[in-house]
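Q: Sequence in, structure out?
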Amino acid sequence: MKNNAVFLLYAFAAVIAMSGIGVAIAERSAIGAIVSILAVIVVFGMGFKTKKRFREQAEN
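A: Exactly. Output:
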């Protein structure tokens, strides 16, 4: 159950970051769009890294 909560938080963070891209485009803010894109990349990377760590712990 703990794993699902962690991944739910990553999912919400990713949605917020993706929404930030749309808001930045609407506001015509190139810097905001770039920061939001970087945030999406970081959140997805952390999510995949966490998933790998949980999977490796389950195997042991």
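Helices lie at 2-26, 30-59.
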